[in-house]
Amino acid sequence: MASEFTANKPDGQLTARILLADDEPRLLTMLARLLREQGYQVTEAHGGKQACEIASKEVFDLALLDLRMPEVDGFATMTHLARSQPDCGVVVVSGESSFNAVSQALRQGALDYIRKPYDPEELLTTVARVLKKRSLLKAHEHIQVRLEKSEALHRYIVNSSPDIVFMLDSQGQFCFVNSKVSGLLGYQPAELCGRHFRHIIDERDITKGIYSLKDPTISADNPKTLELRLKSRGDGNNARHFEVTAFPIDPQTWPHAGTTQGNGSGKGARYYGTARDVTERKEAEAFINYQAYHDLLTRLPNRSLFQDRLELAITHARRNRQRLAVMFLDLDRFKVINDTLGHGMGDQLLQAVAQRLEKCLRKGDTLSRFGGDEFTLLLPSITDEEDARGIAKKLIDALRAPFRLGDHEVFVGVSIGISIYPEMGTSLDQLIQNADIAMYHVKASGKDGYRFYNETMSVDATSRLQMERDLRLALERNELKVFYQPQVCSTSDRVVGLEALVRWQHPERGLIYPGEFLPLAEETRLIGQVSERVLDQACQDAARWIRAGHKDLRLAVNLSPVQVEHPRFVETLLRKVRAHGLPTSNLEIEITENTIMNDLEQISEKLRELAATGVRIAIDDFGTGYSSLNYLHRLPIHTLKVDQSFVKAIRGGEDGACIVNAIVAMAHGLKLDIVAEGVETNEQLTYLRRLGCHQVQGFYYGPARPSANILQSLVKTRTAAPVF
Ligand SMILES: Nc1nc2c(ncn2[C@@H]2O[C@@H]3COP(=O)(O)O[C@H]4[C@@H](O)[C@H](n5cnc6c(=O)[nH]c(N)nc65)O[C@@H]4COP(=O)(O)O[C@H]3[C@H]2O)c(=O)[nH]1
């Protein structure tokens, strides 16, 4: 039970409550009067027994007790008071002056001893002193309790902080660290106290950490904030990122007393600091940064990072008079695979390609994904072109083996253009652009190879761009026309078929032949639109001629690989043919061996589907490609078209003639029709007739003509003169 001085007198003096216990009524009354005169609140007890009873009900600040009292003496009363009112002070006022009695009273807790008869002045002085002492003690206790509460609150706040809070001594050793360190890094505060702070800093940041505290400009008003990696306990590799703020503290201002509880007392502290875990933020920043400079699919540097590195490499090469190489790589057949097998497979393929390419490179080289199926490569220090040539060959070889994508095995090639600093460009843009131009020349000349840039290529590139623009316009303005070349029966001279051949009626350049614009159309994917136009027009024209009475007329249409490899090729083709009312049995599609071999499995299925509807299939330019007997009998092929280069060789027993012989024999053996292309002379015609090649096509019978000229030629038969 706490005893408080409950009221103040008007003059501000405390009014203490005093219990008097004496068995002599006269002395009791005198003492009570004396004390009351001083303003104290006095309660009188006649003997120890009554004192104990009163003390059980009322609260006192001080008890003045006689020792010798009947029934319950002063010692017993003290014992009772100590139990019931431990805060009540006791002063003994007794005639008993033996040493034993006095010392026992003091041992039992009496604060002072006044011997009877007492000097009133002396008694009042003692009472006032004891009360004052009691009051000071109470105040001290009160402050102590508040301090403890406050310290507990602060400790709670510090330990609940989301940050590590620490203090270091002048040597940089921990003298306090909050318990957050255990959750974030796994250390117990007690094991860190006394250890140097470098103990928890990642090796890479130790110098930075140590020098930061030595900075003469840091102060409480100007704390030092820096990012440090701190090691987790027991796992040096697993560092986390912290934003550490630290500043020196004036030791005079720091209360040195305190409990330790394992965290350290902060004694001797010279620096105070906090460490905020910013690992997640750093990781997010690192990821954003990575994303900004990398291609997430292949994990290769992206265009921006490549350009940064190239810029640096150029500066370095210029300063050291060195050379460097930039390569522009474009995959061959990627678009077809991507369209046919889907983008998921396409992505897998790009990843696999990137891995294979990377294996060919040295540390310091930068391979980047430039976009789509384009990659760029920087070789920062090469001695001469031979170095670049060696790498280019290695890259081409690396992609030669087939790639396994699910159940499919696919082949991709790569076309590589190379520019060398300083001979083939001195700036970033020039080097990349020239490598790109060189790459296009590889594509134009048959793909899967490499070329170094030279100045004549730029002219081509400019005209190529112009042509691409023109071709788009041509599609819009309907400048593409379909011409037809007859396929004639060599024995009857009757026109049995017409081959549709596209022409571009250019407003300025006149008639342009497909050899000039189809490769570009293939590269730029415009081939899809070009082919649709031709197919539409040709089906429409042929259907009209068939309706006009030429019901056996065969229409031969060339198809590009891009068309055939398209996933919905069969469906699209049949829809068009039927839309124009052309019987499928009157249509023959011409495809090259290379188109078939690009993906034998897929394409044979499509050809079977088409053949089942009556569409005929012809192999164009036969003899110039694989000429594999293996696929001939596995596919629904109706016609072989002998390439005109072999027909041209029918001149007095050249090898070409032998090839024609072989092809015709093979076609007979396989029961296939055969059409010889490029027949220009009577000699060739006679030779082919004798060989049993009954269908021919060529300038001998006339070139391809516009549709307006066709109908009349269909009714004519010829003996010696051309059809057209
Ligand atoms: N020297 C000579 N040449 C002759 C003779 N008879 C015909 N030619 C030419 O030989 C080519 C035959 O067509 P191809 O082998 O299918 O070769 C075609 C074909 O592969 C492609 N092509 C033409 N039109 C189309 C089309 O609409 N779509 C697709 N995908 N390709 C086409 O372009 C190639 C070239 O077509 P063209 O320039 O029209 O050239 C045609 C034709 O004009 C001759 O007696 N002597």
Automatic annotation (TrEMBL):
Keywords: Kinase, Phosphoprotein, Transferase
Any one Pfam family match given in the protein's UniProt record, by short name: PAS_4
InterPro entries the UniProt entry points to: Biofilm_reg_signaling (IPR052155), CheY-like_superfamily (IPR011006), EAL_dom (IPR001633), EAL_sf (IPR035919), GGDEF_dom (IPR000160), Nucleotide_cyclase (IPR029787), PAS (IPR000014), PAS-like_dom_sf (IPR035965)
Occurrences of domain EAL (ranges): 464-718
Domain PAS: 150-205
Post-translational modification 4-aspartylphosphate, affected residues: D66
Domain called Response regulatory: residue spans: 17-131
Matches recorded under PROSITE patterns: EAL (PS50883), GGDEF (PS50887), PAS (PS50112), RESPONSE_REGULATORY (PS50110)
Residue ranges of domain GGDEF in the record: 322-455
UniProt entry tagged with the keyword Aminoacyl-tRNA synthetase: no
Protein name: EAL domain-containing protein
Organism per entry: Marinobacter suaedae
Source lineage: Bacteria, Pseudomonadati, Pseudomonadota, Gammaproteobacteria, Pseudomonadales
